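User: Hey, quick favor. My workstation is busy. Could you predict this chain's structure for me?
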Amino acid sequence: MAQHDFKVTTQWQGGRESVGQLKGDILEEQVSIPSGLGGKGVGTNPDEMLVAAASTCYIISLAAVLERSGFNDIQITQQSIGRASLDKGKFKMVEITHYPDIQIDEAQLPKLKDKLSKLLQLADRNCMISNAIRGNVEVNIEPSLQN
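Assistant: No problem, here it is.
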């Protein structure tokens, strides 16, 4: 079994109104509680990073699945929305919906329409983040196709 470690260092000083630091191999960002939740709203926050991780993982998986299925010259633009709710005094991410907009050559469009549902599910099953949150966060995919 292949393994890979992903390392990040976080730093925080003070209480909930403070701003911390996150540093990974490439990513370096300030972090704080979102202003909508009573925090500073500086930099990013764990909730946004969770949605970003799910979104980037899914779009990469989708691109790979489409490529392996013979679809080339594609472009995907995706918006992802995470919905959190407050339940018994605790916030929880309850769902993430991906909205991939797939642009593909008109000649390949009918073939993709036939296989799209299966390929979307395969991409979700191949996404490490989807697999990590499955059972805790509902993941929905609402695609659109363009030529």
